[in-house]
Amino acid sequence: xxxxxxxxxxxxxxxxxxxxxxxxxxxxxxxxxxxxxxxxxxxxxxxxxxxxxxxxxxxxxxxxxxxxxxxxxxxxxxxxxxxxxxxxxxxxxxxxxxxxxxxxxxxxxxxxxxxxxxxxxxxxxxxxxxxxxxxxxxxxxxxxxxxxxxxxxxxxxxxxxxxxxxxxxxxxxxxxxxxxxxxxxxxxxxxxxxxxxxxxxxxxxxxxxxxxxxxxxxxxxxxxxxxxxxxxxxxxxxxxxxxxxxxxxxxxxxxxxxxxxxxxxxxxxxxxxxxxxxxxxxxxxxxxxxxxxxxxxxxxxxxx
Amino acid sequence: xxxxxxxxxxxxxxxxxxxxxxxxxxxxxxxxxxxxxxxxxxxxxxxxxxxxxxxxxxxxxxxxxxxxxxxxxxxxxxxxxxxxxxxxxxxxxxxxxxxxxxxxxxxxxxxxxxxxxxxxxxxxxxxxxxxxxxxxxxxxxxxxxxxxxxxxxxxxxxxxxxxxxxxxxxxxxxxxxxxxxxxxxxxxxxxxxxxxxxxxxxxxxxxxxxxxxxxxxxxxxxxxxxxxxxxxxxxxxxxxxxxxxxxxxxxxxxxxxxxxxxxxx
Lengths: 304, 265
Prior knowledge:
The structure holds 2 protein chains of 2 kinds.
Chain A lengths: L5 E10 L2 E11 L4 E5 L6 H8 L7 E6 L7 H4 L2 E4 L11 H10 L12 H8 L4 H4 L8 H13 L5 E5 L7 H16 L3 E6 L2 H7 L2 E6 L2 E7 H6 L3 E7 L13 E7 L2 E6 L4 H8 L3 E5 L5 H9 L7
Parallel strand pairs in A: 3-7, 3-8, 5-6, 6-7
Antiparallel strand pairs in A: 1-2, 1-4, 8-9, 10-12, 10-13, 11-12
Helix pairs in contact in A: 3-6
Chain B lengths: L1 H39 L2 H8 L2 H4 L5 H4 L2 H7 L4 H15 L1 H8 L1 H6 L5 H34 L11 H22 L5 H24 L17 H6 L5 H24 L3
Helix pairs in contact in B: 1-6, 1-9, 6-9, 6-10, 9-10, 9-13, 10-11, 10-13
């Protein structure tokens, strides 16, 4: 197995008595798109800031390419887009990109000729957008400039915090394409989001953060498999059972002879039960990540 | 890499710096011209005699100030000149707090830019302002002396020691402001604290001049070491004053670097 691009061990951050992150351990391999999920305040941005040495850990350690993030050589291989993007308002988009390009260490490989223009074009950044001072730009255009700055130079690790915020659907698609392309080229993408559908579509593996703790870490497929299953059963008119008393089975919706069931655990008792009734149709809707996600957020500690 | 940071800072501060430098040069020229007008009809001495004794005592050294030579040097410690000079320095020194507030600092230090390099680029901006302001006053003095054509005028080079003291004072104030800014989340509070600190130093120096009981504390003020009139007219050496101010500047700057390197952004 290749050495991890990013490795966090028992990472924790507290502010006074408030624990923002508690014991996060994580390892990312080259070529993977990792989805980092959690509601607002779960600790996603805190994690990212620790990964980039913007804040210092109370406990634990981070390695980027085997180096501590404090080492500029580690950060030279990272492209970053923050959640709250604060560009220099007095620079134009073009000057912004040139400025970040100039921050590369001497001799470091830069973007291939024409690559920046290609990224800008795919993100829908026209020449007039790039020649305007950022102060006059819309939120979407600023986000595009931030994305172009993150992707330019083809960094080996992309850390993107809510990358599609403020973007229209077409540009979102372009961002997903850029992420997938980067992964195909062996780059690693750390995609932090609270939009499940985005992570579901782009990521190969996902971590779910809840109140500062990593409560799930698995592939998207495994996450789907482990989620609560739903079953829609239709009975003959007037022949639907009054109640279903089986372990792990709950009737979540009843509409005439149509029942929506929630199932956890073994299916056999339910199938045996249904075989004794006049069933006309059974549908298993595709399990989506929302189910898995919601599962990890139920319980007394779940944020409101 | 640091060149890109310095170039961007210069681009942003250029207008303010040019306006400040032009303003200071014009102000000092005006001071020289006005002093020449008063000097021709003994106006300065008359003006001095009209002042209450407590205020007369404030003019250091009194006999020198009321001469054309002293008035030219007084331009270097005039509140207007000090306000403009410190405005240039503080605008540069509070950049880290401003960029922390806007979020731009995150983007820069998430790149392969060490915090030390970022702050070093800021420090160069402070140094640039601390040199430009006294140079502008010197240019204004040279121009003013030439225009005034006063028979008692000293050559403009006589004001170089005073300019050096001012430069050292600006570096000390800039260092303290940088130390405050290095730990601040927003520019407003960093700027307010810097101004409050400088005003406290200014009034301590003022009080030490008029109240004997406060006089021993005078040396604690940065402004105590700015004596351009004495340096120009009496040839007092600026070395001790400059050394004290540069020591403050170096200590405050070192503290700023240590604080910035350790803080959470």
